[in-house]
Amino acid sequence: MDALKPVTAFGPDFPFAYDTWLTHPAGLGQIPTARHGTAVAIIGAGASGIIAAYELMKMGLRPIIYESAKFGGRLRSEVFEGTDDVIAELGGMRFPASSRAFFHYVDLVGLESSPFPNPLTPTAGSTVVDLEGDTYFARGLDDLPQIFKEVAVAYRAALEEHSDFSALTQAVRDRDPGRLKALWDPLVAKWDERTFYDFIVSSSAFQALSFRHREIFGQVGFGTGGWDSDFPNSMLEILRVNLLELDDHQRLIVGGAESVLQRLWRQPTTCTHWPDGTTLAGLNGGATMGRAVRIGRNVEGGLTVTDGWDVARDYAAVLVTCQSHLLTTSVAVDEALFAQKLWMALDRTRYMQAAKTFVMVDRPFWKDPGPDGRPLLSMTLTDRITRGTYFFDNGPDRPAVICLSYSWMTDALKVLPYGPEKRVELALAALERVYPGVDIRSHIRGNPICVSWEADENFLGAFKGALPGHYRYNHRMYGHFFQKDMPVEQRGIFLAGDGISWTPAWVEGAVQTALNAVWGVMTHMGGASRAENPGPGDLWATLSPVDLPD
Ligand SMILES: Cc1cc2nc3c(=O)[nH]c(=O)nc-3n(C[C@H](O)[C@H](O)[C@H](O)COP(=O)(O)OP(=O)(O)OC[C@H]3O[C@@H](n4cnc5c(N)ncnc54)[C@H](O)[C@@H]3O)c2cc1C
Prior knowledge:
22 strands; 18 helices; alpha+beta; globular; four-stranded parallel β-sheet; single chain; 18% strand
């Protein structure tokens, strides 16, 4: 029976039940009446910024949002020119069911989700794996040659051998913080400084197999493919993905992930202090501020944010959600606002590259049967430049979308200097080798949509990918919301977002850190959680992530 309890993104570093905190009828907490209406600045209109703003508005604060690029941040859904609703998901596109805090907001705004067409899933229908010139067609793992099954079995065995994985998973299912910490905390010291590749090659299971098995693992991995891009990363980060099932049971948001944030921006909610019908959009006068260029302490002891037009505004607190390396490149932040050890963490944080190339096509023609009776094209994993090709069916007679290529790191860098047309050409050339004779070109409509997050000055990278030895940096950033013991001159500025979380590249981490920051801002303003619904800071002393000595 126990095994049937769902896996949720609970811990493992800080096993606090964010979903329970969010849904408790007592609410997240309250702020003294005298502080109601106080303005707080939020830098970034992405998931963490908008969600934190929404919760702070409900508590009676006035969150003023700054956004230098586009609303939505890395949940950007771009509409193909000439259509109303045919979209390309440029950032987050597949959301694991374990992302409970994120799905709380999906449900709150009334959006639907549906299974994502991942490799070897029924939703994809069929998958083609193309490696070293050999092409395999499969509807599920069982259809692939034996060597693929050996790889899958070996990875399970490696997880058991190196991390007592079944027991860990059970502790996550049980939401048992004590058991989880007892199992996880020793793994932190053991694996922080070792890579994903080391984890694979040092396991007995992979040692008994060939190099070819490791290569296949790198291409096809344990879920969505392309895992060799992560081989140099700290194994802790990969373990979290496995343990919290972030690469499993993934769903897309119908209408686009960005609409979660658009709706939170526009949707009225019951707030303390603010009249019925209040919205984030309304409190912000219908539009966000522009770029924040400077953050500093003012003479009253509050914080001042200066925008790109050199207009300075004072705030009681500031929440920064942009990527941390932007704080030393494009936002001038008073050095005294953070401890030097935190600066080290913010600046050492390593961001990965990612590129996507989308085209709109006239209809889901890839489903048409080819001469062999199989679909013309299938979800494709390959060692060629495209790496992953995904198909999005919007209905039989409607324009459909192909993500011709989703790649990371070196594969993303290969296309970095090129414009959309050249990227499409490169992708089509690769796919034409996998599917000789299949005509994709005549189905393309409109203009391609491409992204390289590392080329955008507002991001300079796609998402964090912690390197070996980065646990301490992550600990400093993640724990920064708990400011009780901090020097006064460092209080009042908060951090949240993908790069602050333990689970970068997954929006759930951005949401959880936003909720930490909500608790931090609330207590900074003299507020507190309700006793019956303690928040993350209230349980920090007992649940805080294990310390590694400096
Ligand atoms: C390619 C890609 C694929 C992904 N896939 C998935 C997925 O499938 N599933 C999943 O769960 N997650 C996925 N993610 C992760 C998810 O998209 C992120 O975790 C989440 O969107 C990050 O939200 P955030 O608020 O932390 O940051 P952001 O969304 O980056 O928000 C920060 C905002 O700050 C703005 N900003 C920067 N500088 C300034 C400034 N000076 N002044 C004002 N504003 C500024 C930026 O423009 C940005 O809008 C993916 C991310 C990427 C990039």
